Amino acid sequence: MKLVNPLYYPVAVLAGAIALVVGVRVAKLPSVVMLPSAVAIATLGAAALKAQEPEIGLDPALSQN
Prior knowledge:
Layout: H1 10-26, H2 31-52
């Protein structure tokens, strides 16, 4: 699995932010535990979203210049 920048995937960042807020406010977990968890959720979510994207390559006919 390649490391992906979650900032390119706003949905993944939103999921990490929701996990952070729910973990700290609702579940009363310490922020020291929830912050790395939220970062991991955002990074794994971004990796999953990147894996679903089609691979974009150049058309061989266009690259014959």
